[in-house]
Amino acid sequence: MRKLKLFLAGIVFVMAGIGLVTDQSELIPYMFLVLGGMMVVQGIEERRKDSRSFWAYASFATAGFLWFVSISVFVNGNS
Hints:
Layout: H1 2-22, H2 28-49, H3 54-76
Helix pairs in contact: 1-2, 2-3
């Protein structure tokens, strides 16, 4: 799980860097999708440590919000 989380974090880091260097915002929805996946992995790790962990539920809620925003941008366009 840790390797998957680090891999997803690397993807987010690269996408954010590309967006900053090129001054383009087209990658943001894709970055949110990957970041949401990373938050799900984080939530699973926290849940394995402690089944009643607040941070596990917070990670799942954050992932849901990120996916909601990303999908709504895909559906409504970049306007």
